[in-house]
Amino acid sequence: MSGFFDIPSDLQHTYAGLIGLHLREALVPVLVGLVVSLPVAQLCVRFRWLYPPVLGVTTVLYAIPSLAFFVVLIDYTGQSETTVMIPLAVYSMVVLVPAIVEGVRSVPPETLAAATAMGFGPVRRYVQVQLPIAVPAIIAGLRVATVSSISLVSVGMLIGNQGALGNLLHDAQIYNRPELAVNSVVTTAVLAILADAALVAVRLLLTPWMPKESAAR
Amino acid sequence: MNLLQFVHAFFGDGSHWHGYDGIPTRVLEHVRYSLEALALAAAIGLPVGLVTGHYGRGGNALALLATAGRALPTFGLLVLVVTWLGFGLGPVMIPLVVLAVPPILVTTYEAVRSVDPAPVDAARGMGMPEPRILFQVELPVALTLILGGLRSAAVQIVSTATIAAYVGLGGLGRYIIDGLYQRNYEKVVGGATLVAALALATLAVFWAVARLTVSPGVRRGT
């Protein structure tokens, strides 16, 4: 009854169940953040004057502590998964918008001119030229967003056991079983490192044109 | 609307402004934890970042270290460290420093490494020894970026120091954690507002520091 992987029944999940829950609570917000960030970033690239104010707003949003964000949302969405996921989506956007803008802007003007000369319309040029070239910058942003999202889900434990693997931290204390806390920290860290490695692999697949030595990083 | 009423009620209550649980005390505690953690993280991250950036080596090792640091869940680490080492300020510093070192380290490394090589070569050609090149040429040029790294570390520390209250310390997290258990949302929202305000104040301080310390010539270039 006190093994490393024996999850107390009050969590109502198996070890694998907690991992699935944790990944869902962490990754869905990153995906939502990416889907919202792409058009926002494109607007910032298209209308230059928009970028500084957008950057200002995202900096302010990032300054709101996750716990405070969760607690304020309880009033609207209750003590639920959604309450944990909304702030994480916002944090992901804060990281992703600048990453995408910098990535799209870093496309050399000659490349764009060549695409236009070949008869690419603005949409096709964006999807087939700018976005692929921006992939390394976008993935770099996604890595930071994903890793911090996975780490932050644990804080959800404080708003009524909505922290997936983080809930083990609470049980570690009430049942005096420190190994559960070790389990929580180690599992979360391993998940974060695996997600990071997966994104690096995606980058390598999507950018076969990049020089190999810099691909190692 | 609801939210504003909570904020108004919290700050309007005179009893929230006095004593050991008063706003001034809690703000000072929070600032103290944050400053100590930032100082520790800077003491580790800055020298390592400056030296590795100057010689342009160890980037891969640093990136690996930073990923590992980011991967460790801060909150979990806090609970774990307190379980092992007991309650107190020292144990709380560990997760905060682990949180803050990666951004400082990586930005400092990148900032120094990406300094325009022409002035560095000129300085070397004039016979400047390496430490002087680092501190009188590379550091001033890279300062904007380095301060940016310190700034994001500081903001993360300020917002994360909230969780110190979970293991019985003071700071602004006290209001949030106590309010949650007492079902006193006025207190929770008040605490959250204070932390966010403190984080914004941190941004303002760094903006002012950058204004004062970055040389006008460098600023014009960026």
UniProtKB/TrEMBL annotation, chain A:
GO cellular component, one term: plasma membrane
InterPro entries xref list: ABC_transp_perm/SBD, MetI-like, MetI-like_sf
Keyword 4Fe-4S: no
Domain (ABC transmembrane type-1): residue spans on this chain: 19-203
Pfam families in UniProt: BPD_transp_1 (PF00528)
Recorded superkingdom: Bacteria
CDD domains referenced in this protein's UniProt entry, alphabetically: TM_PBP2
GO biological process: glycine betaine transport; transmembrane transport
Transmembrane segments: 26-47, 54-76, 82-101, 133-160, 180-206
Stored Gene3D superfamilies: MetI-like
Signal peptide: none
Keyword terms: Membrane, Transmembrane, Transmembrane helix, Transport
Localization annotation: Cell membrane; Membrane
Membrane topology (UniProt): Multi-pass membrane protein
Family: Belongs to the binding-protein-dependent transport system permease family.
PANTHER family associated with the record: GLYCINE BETAINE/L-PROLINE TRANSPORT SYSTEM PERMEASE PROTEIN PROW, OSMOPROTECTANT IMPORT PERMEASE PROTEIN OSMW
Protein name per the record: ABC transporter permease subunit
UniProtKB/TrEMBL annotation, chain B:
Subcellular location: Cell membrane; Membrane
Family: Belongs to the binding-protein-dependent transport system permease family.
Keyword field contains Transmembrane: yes
Keywords: Membrane, Transmembrane, Transmembrane helix, Transport
Major subcellular site: membrane
Transmembrane segment boundaries: 37-55, 157-177, 189-210
GO CC annotation, single: plasma membrane
Residues in ABC transmembrane type-1 domain copies: 27-206
InterPro entries in the record: ABC_transp_perm/SBD (IPR051204), MetI-like (IPR000515), MetI-like_sf (IPR035906)
Protein name (Swiss-Prot/TrEMBL): ABC transporter permease
PANTHER family named among the record's database cross-references: GLYCINE BETAINE/L-PROLINE TRANSPORT SYSTEM PERMEASE PROTEIN PROW, POSSIBLE OSMOPROTECTANT (GLYCINE BETAINE_CARNITINE_CHOLINE_L-PROLINE) TRANSPORT INTEGRAL MEMBRANE PROTEIN ABC TRANSPORTER PROZ
Keyword Transcription listed: no
Pfam family name, one: BPD_transp_1
Gene Ontology process terms (BP): glycine betaine transport; transmembrane transport
Membrane topology of this protein: Multi-pass membrane protein
